[in-house]
Write a structure and sequence with these properties.
Length: 97
């Protein structure tokens, strides 16, 4: 089965996310996400990224971009990257839409 991958860098623009030790979450999620996006492209896997620059995205805009790309396709994997501060060491949230 052919899946489409959607990479979603958490936060961005006016929303920095967590910060500590000189690291700002929005910057690191963007770096990781751009790396993943380019790697999936290299592998020939259909991939979309919700933001590729440091821009503010409302939750609604984020979902709209995902829907625009994926339409009603059920074979889509969304990877939303976050680097949490505090209790956990970071996580990748995956959900099928
Ligand atoms: Zn986050």
């Amino acid at each position: 089965m052919d899946y489409k991958i959607i990479i979603d860098p958490g936060h961005g623009g006016n929303d920095p996310g967590a910060s500590g030790n000189g690291i700002i979450e929005k910057d690191l999620t963007l770096k990781i996400s751009n790396y993943m996006y380019n790697r999936f492209k290299e592998l020939g896997i259909p991939v979309f990224i919700t933001r590729s620059t440091d821009e503010t995205l409302s939750p609604t805009e984020r979902v709209n971009r995902i829907k625009e790309y994926a339409g009603n396709d059920k074979n889509v994997v969304v990877v939303s990257n976050h680097i949490n501060a505090g209790g956990s060491i970071g996580k990748i949230v995956m959900a099928r839409i």
